[in-house]
Amino acid sequence: MLQTLHRRLTTGARPLRRVAAALAVATIIAVVPVPSGGAATAAAPDAAGGLGAGDQGAPTATATGVAAALATSWLTVTRFCLLCPASPPAGAEVTYLVVPNDSIAGVPWTTYTGTVAFSSSDPRAILPKPYTFTGGGPGGDRGEHYFTVVFRTAGEQTVTVSSTTPVKMSGTADPVEVVPAPSHHLTFDSTPTEAVVGKPFSPQPVVRIRDGFGNVTGSTATVTLSLETPPDGAGALFTCVDGIQRKAVAGVATFDGCTIGRAANGYRIRADAIDLTSARTDYFIVDYPTTGPPTPGGSPTPSPTPLPSPTPLPTGSPGPSATPGPSGTPGPSATPTPTGSPAPTASLPPDVGSPRLTRSPSTVTYPAPVTLALAFPGAGGGRTLAIERRNVDAADWTRVGEVTTDADGRASLEVVPGRTAEYRAVWPGSADLPAATSRPVTATVRFGLTVSPAFTKRTVTWGTTLTWNVKVQPRTTNVAVTFRLYQRTAGAWKLVSTVVKRTPSSGIVTYARRFWIPGTWSVAISTGAGPANAPGTAPRIVVTLR
Q: Which pTM was predicted?
């Protein structure tokens, strides 16, 4: 037999893959080490051509040798890209071809039926679920399968595919440079913590332009700052060196020399840019200088303590007048406080904390509810506080309900906001406890989209026209509704067309599309921001044309 095999190999006959694999296995079996303390012996075949009864260890050695060889198998992970950018944007689908390789034969493992799992250098990546290959039988994948990964963090990213059955192996794709998606919103780096009237506060505003996944973009958009003031800070002068507008450099707008001209508690700085979602800092205090406010007709007098930090007053309660009193500090307003309300300068007892209001969740899609949770430390039970709302596009506070604290000073209220709004809790005061108001919290409300007919997948025939009616809630006029049509090409979604429509008074827009090219299509529907609502999205619709 060996002579015949030698003759075939030396006379130009094409060797079969199975012969090569058999020789590789034979070589592996020949080098399997003998267990410690054992002796290497040759096993003679019995009369039937098999191993003798005394050679039970030989098959174990053979299986161990094959497993040792297969343990060096590997996975090839290759990006599959024909009509897609070399550097995909965050949020785009990236397609990879995964091929298991058989180290015994040195070729793709077409009968592989193991399970592979995915990991990535991007901790926020959307990865495929573990997949079990289906082998080389009818309908099997024959050792090749395509997978889609969505990277969401800009920078160099990789994806690794690994398997533990039937052998342990892995493979890592070449790195791909992920770039930021289109600019979406603004963020502040921080909130001022040290602010004194007329002096540059610290830290100064730094605004970053980010995509929908939080990556800083390379935008050069112009960012404009404005000041949102509490009642006793109304009319405060807000200035920055070289103005309150900056053109961003590589997605970052840096301001310096910014000052605020009036002491008060509850300021916020807002940043705006065209077509981007605005940003606001947290609330902060602007204090008097350490020498105190000026005394009319004289030099500044030392101030024993910084400006108190009263919370905003209930709607309709006047704040302190800016007119100096005899002692050199602001005197009381000439307008009397409403009957039954405590003086605005009164402070809570040391064992009672200011009321605090929190909201959960902070962002909802209309008409989802928001839970407002109140904590009034030390106040005890039976305290009834009003809950007030102020829409982001309004100036006045409106009472929306009331809560009564339990023995621990806690209470909650569920609301369904139609617009992005601020909420606060107002304690009107009593004989034993002066009035107090919590700092406002913001509940962001996204537009809700109702799509009719309501389906996410459909198979159609050539020439079919599909029409969708999209209802934007809460109903708002002149909101931009964008319809993006994608085609599945070479394993990735390619943008084909974009149509933008604006809502009429009914809040309903219509989109129609005729499908005449075979393939898989997708319709993505979203809105822009409204006067008091964040952008909304609808579930993606997939249409297959046979």
A: 0.45
